[in-house]
Amino acid sequence: MKPINRVEGRAIPFGQKNVDTDVIIPAKWLKTVSREGLGEGAFEAIRAQEGNIFDDPEYAGAKILIAGDNFGCGSSREHAAWALADLGITAVIAPSFSDIFSGNAFKNGLLAIAVPQAAVDRLMEVAKTDPITIDMESMSITTPFQDRFAFEMDPFRHQCLVEGLDEIDLTLAKSDAIERHEKRNDSAQPWLIPAAA
Amino acid sequence: MNQPKTLYEKIWDAHVVDQRDDGTALIYIDRHLVHEVTSPQAFEGLRKAGRKVRRPDLTLAVPDHNLPTTARLDAQGNKIPIADPQSAAQLEALEANAPAFGIKYIGASDINQGIVHVIGPEQGFTLPGTTMVCGDSHTAAHGALGALAFGIGTSEVEHVLATQTLQLTRSKTMEIRVEGDLGPGISPKDLILHIVGVLGTAGGTGHVIEYRGKVFEEMSIEGRLTVSNMSIEAGARAGLIAPDDKTFAYLEGRPMAPKGADWDAAVAYWKTLPTDAGAKFDKSVTIDAADVSPTVTWGTSPEDVVPVNGVVPAPDSFSDPSKQDAARKSLDYMGLEAGQALRDVSVENIFIGSCTNSRIEDLRAAAAILEGRKKADNVKWAIVVPGSGLVKAQAEAEGLDRIFTDAGFEWREPGCSACLGMNPDKVPAGERCASTSNRNFVGRQGPGARTHLMSPAMAAAAAVTGKLTDVRELTR
Ligand code: SF4
Question: In this structure, are residues A150 and A119 in contact, taking their beta carbons and an 8 Å threshold?
Fold first, then answer.
C-alpha cells in the first residue's frame, strides 16, 4: 500500500449522519470481481439527483470527504471502502465511524479520522471555499485560516498507514515462525496435508 | 497435572504461530475453502502485489452461490451459458484463478461439486482438530466434526491465501447442554432453531459454542452439521462438537481424509481433543429437550422462533423496546398479525436445500413425508436442491428423486439456490416460503420474499397441506 503522510486539497462537505454502507455502495454493485470500478456506483442514489454535491464541479478531484456521525453503519460490506477509494477519496472525516467500516477502511489504506462535531462543523464551513490539510505526522487537520484540530489514531494503525504497510506485509515479516509451525506439522502430523483425491 | 482444557482451547493452543502483547495471536490455518463470491478481489490483490498462494495444497475451490441449479450441460455435453453477466463473471474468475494459483478446483459439472460446507466434510477435507476458514459465515458448520471453523471477509481471504495465517483474538467459550431426550419427530433443525431462540442473535457474541451431552453424542454427523451451521445465527464465532467414533466412521475412506498409518495416527490424536473433565467454560447454558417442539420462524431474524402449534407473538410482549419495534416491522414485512396461529399460515413456495439441510439424511426425512403424497394446489413452486452431486447421486440411487417429482417438486442441480437471492432461484415478492435454509432476513430469498425457517420434514409437511403444519400429524 502507498504510505500516507499528508492529504491536502478540497474536501466534499457532505455532512450527512448515519450514512450506511448501502448508501455508500448499493447491494446491486456487490457482484463484482474487482476492487476497481466501484466508484461508479458510489452514492448512486444521491448522485441520481440533480445538483448533488458529489458531482458539483466545485469539488471535482476532492480527496477528502466530510460526513456526520456513525459513518459506514449497516452491512459489513468491504465494497464500501473500495468504492470510496475508487471515487478518489483518501480520507473521510466524521465525528464517529462504525467499527466495521473503520476496520475495512484501514485494511484498504483509507483514512477514517474522527474529530468532535464542532471541528467537523468548522471544517464543513471551510470546505465550501478552501482546501484543508490532514497531516499524519503531527496528527492534525489544518485550514488556511489557522484552524488546527488534533486527532487520535490507534498507534499500530497509524504506523501501518504512514509506512504503507499492509497486514499481509506485517505477517510475512513473521515467515520464519510460520515455517517453523509448518515443519513441526510435517513431522508430527503429516496427515494434515489432504490426501490427493 | 496440566490444567484441564476445553476442545476450543486445545485447538487454539495447537495453532498459535506468534503471540502478540495485545492478546491477539497469529493462528495457523489448516484448511481454506474458496468460492466465487468472496474470492475475486482477494486474488486480484495477490496479483497486484505479486504474491503467491502460500499453501495451495491446503486450499480447495468450488463454485456454489451464483450457479443456477438447472441443467449445466446440454444434450451434447456442452456448458450451458449463464444468463446473468455478473454471475458468469464471478464464476469465470474462480475457474481461472484457481488453476492460476495452483489450487484444486471442483468444476460446476463435476459430480463432487456442491455447496462449500457440504463438500468439505463429504470429501474428507474437513478434519477434527484443524482450523478452517471460508469467506462465508456458515463455515461454522464444520465444527460438527470438531474443526475450529469460521467465516471471514475478503481481505482475510487474501491474508490467508498469502500467509496461511490470521491475526485473531481468542474467543470466550460457551457450553450448551441439552438435558433429556428429543421427542419423536423432533429434528436437529428444530433443536438449533430453539437454541437460537433461547440465546438470541447476540447471545453467543464473542464466544465459540461447544454443544455437549447425550443428545449431540447420539446425533448423526448430518444432524451435527445442521446444528453447528447455525451457531452464527446465535452470534457465535463458531460451533464445536467433540469428535467421536461416529466422526471417525464418517470420515474414514473419504477421498481427502488420511489413509493407512496416517489415518491411525490422526485418530489417535483426535481422541485427545475432547474437553477435559473439569475444564471451565466462560458461560454454560442448559436446554431442556422437553421444551423443543417442531419449530418455525415467524419474523425476519432467526431468533424469531415459535413452536408450530403456537401463535405469532405480540410486539408488546417483548421487554426490550428496540425488539418491540423490530417485531412490529417484522410482522408488517411478513404480513402476519399478533396472535395469529402459525398453523393457519399458507405457503406458496417450498425450498428444501442449503448448507443447513441438503444432505442425504435431510432428503430422506423430507421424502419419508412426501412418499405417496402430493403437494397442495396452492403451492406454486417446490424445489429440492441436493447439497452436492454426490448427495444427488445417492438420493437417485435410493429413488428419492422420484418421490419428490411425483409429489410435484422440481429436482435440481447442487448449489446455494434459494438460500440467498444471488442466482435465479428466488421467491417472488410478497409470497411465503417454507425453507430449510438458515436466514430469514428481509429480502434474503429475493426482494419482498417472506421466509419461514424449518426442518426438511416440516417443509415437506407444509408442501402437502399448503400451510405451516406440525409434521407429527402426518406421521401418526
Ligand atoms: S447455502 Fe446459503 S448459507 Fe450456505 S453457503 Fe450457500 S449461501 Fe451461504
Answer: no
